[in-house]
Design a protein that fits this description.
Elements: H1 13-20, H2 28-37, H3 42-55, E1 60-62, E2 67-77, E3 82-92, E4 99-105
Antiparallel strand pairs: 1-2, 2-3, 3-4
């Protein structure tokens, strides 16, 4: 299944900059090392997340008290390589567009 309204998906720059690529964020700092090792910058990671959301056909809906939650798995590409990731997107109270929640390296 496609992520609903994927062409309008939103990735907030602050979420990437202050969370996924932050070396000091309590949870993000562990992800930061992996994304940086793949050559991701704020711009390349944001674009890769949006591309994955817009092109993937394997979004899975999961229950959530906050709206419709979708998990999208795939690969993203940084400057130095590709990385298998799991991303989470939310349709707030069932309204579009989908907003990016988190990403983490896929378990192998």
């Amino acid at each position: 299944m496609k992520l609903p309204d994927a062409e309008r998906a939103v990735v907030e720059k602050a979420k990437v900059e202050r969370y996924l690529l932050s070396p000091t964020h309590a949870h993000g700092r562990h992800k930061q090392r992996v994304f940086v090792s793949a050559g991701c910058t704020v711009e390349t990671l944001t674009n890769a997340l949006l591309t994955l959301a817009r092109t993937s056909d394997n979004a899975e809906e999961e229950p959530s008290p906050f709206g419709r939650k979708f998990v999208v798995r795939g690969s993203i590409t940084g400057r130095t390589g590709s990385l298998a990731v799991t991303t989470v997107w939310m349709l707030r109270s069932g309204k579009t567009p989908p907003y990016f929640v988190t990403a983490y390296p896929a378990k192998r």
